Every structure is written in C-alpha cells, then in structure tokens.
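Entry:
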Amino acid sequence: MASKEYLKCPFSSLFVVRKMSPRPNPSHIKAGKIAARVRDEICEVLKPGTKIYSLCTMAEKKIIDYGGQPAFPCTISYNHFTAHYTSPIGDPMVLPDDAMVKVDVGVHVEGYIADTARTIDLSGDLEGFAIATDDALHEAIQMMRPGTNLGDVGKTIESIIKTYGLKPIKNLSGHNIERYRLHAGKTVPNVKTRTGDVVEVGECYAVEPYATNGTGSVIDSDLVYIFSNIPKDDPLTGSTEKLRLHLRKKYGPFPFTSRWIGTTTKDIDIVKELSVLLKHQYIKGYPVQLTKKRRPSSQSEHTVFITEQDPIVLTR
C-alpha cells in the first residue's frame, strides 16, 4: 500500500518492545509467504469482465484461510486508478478489456506485516510498464543494504524507469514497516531525493516503484473507501459511538473498508456513519489516487528485511 503520509499507530498497548534482530521473525516470514501466494493466485484469475468486488473479497478470504489477517483491504487499481482502490459496499465495477491491473496485498501475522504488489496487463499492449517497475524493483532491492542512503535508492529507481521511456511517480513511495505499523517513518522514494535516512540492520521495508507515461504524479480523487482509526477518545452518541468503539476494537491500527463492517439492523447506514467519523476526525480516509490526464500506471512491490549481508525478500 503506497505511502503519501505516514500512518502513526495510536494504540501503544499493541506494541512489544522491539529489539533489532539480524533475522526476520517466523511470523513475518509466514506473512510474506501468504502475501506472495495470494498476490499470485489473484493475478492468475484476472480477466476482463471480472467484478473487482469479487477479486478483493477472494484475496481477503484466502489470506485468512492461509493463516493470516489482512493488513489492509486488498486493492485492485487499474489504468489511471493508481492506488487505494478497493471495492465499496455493492461495487458494480468490472475490469475492462484494456485494463492494466495493479494487485496490492497486505498480510499480517501477529502484527508482522508483509506488503506486496504486481501489475498485469490484460490488453497485451503495455507490458513495458510492468517490466519497467519490475526491473526497478529488482535493482532497488539489491541496494537495500546497511548504510545505503534511501535517496540513492530513489535515484536508481528513477533512472531505470526512465530508460523505458516512462516516468516514476514522484509523490508515491515505499515505506519502512514495523510491527503493527504499516508506515513506520522512513520512506523509499521513487525519484532522486536528498535525505539523511539510511538503511539499517533489522529494519523492514516495502519497496514499490510506480511508472506512468503521464506527468509522473498522482492526485487524490473524491473516492474514499479505505480508512484507519485516529486516537481521539471524546465520546460520541448513539450508533456513531457504537461504530467508533467497534472499529477501534476490531481493526486497531490497521486500515479497513466499509464492506468489512456488518450490522444486525438495516436502520444503520454504515457509509453515512463513516462520513460522520471522518468529519469529526475520529478516522482517517485514504483517497483513491489517480494519474493526471488519465494516463496508465504500473506498480511492483516486495517487502524486504535488512540483514548484515543480502536483504531477505519476504514476499518473493
């Protein structure tokens, strides 16, 4: 899941004191394997006319069946829809014939998070996009070693994508991951960037190049289908307060979507209640992000763990 603003986890009770380790936790390895398996299985069934709702729910069910939990709603973004598109309640949208589809999957096992994405070109005309981001991802991962400046990683990503005649998307980036924290502070830029942040032993990163033949940037749309809790404890009233408490207990620091939220009565309008929580800043929304001028985009992503030697790709 792309980062434009860091997700600060407000639920300190969920944290265990983190000790730097040269090897990933077994739960982290398991999360990576599940994420990779689900990513590839969803990519195998992509075809024109498939409902995006069915793909998202299929991915999330597989995650649970394989022993994990979704770290965020599965996103299926296509063409100029670049990031954060997950089906809302009753979504009728289907994949068009010419779709370039980005499948982004997040899994956690006991709070250890794996984040991975892949692009599939259903049209057969834009395969160079996915090859560009795959190539940039491969080279970037080779650089993820202790002491490497993250701005230099962005420089490499930018250089490789440009060799394909495309532009990296500069205002989307990869991100540092910690236990229970999807966006933990450091970013992995997709363009040359001046930063003092360096890669350190024991850290974990989601590296995710994006490419487009447009302007090289995305904008927020009016569509918001993914949310996360904000640490605000002033009580509300009625069904809105019940929903606020439910969301905090059920999802904690992890992003969620409206179609996950069930109710025993038809009298409660979940979408309306979420709008109230957004308005009063009890939850945060993640708008669907679009390329300018409706140009297509691709994404490739792996989660890597930093050791003293080669980085370990958890989502291979």
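DSSP finds six helices and 16 strands in the chain.
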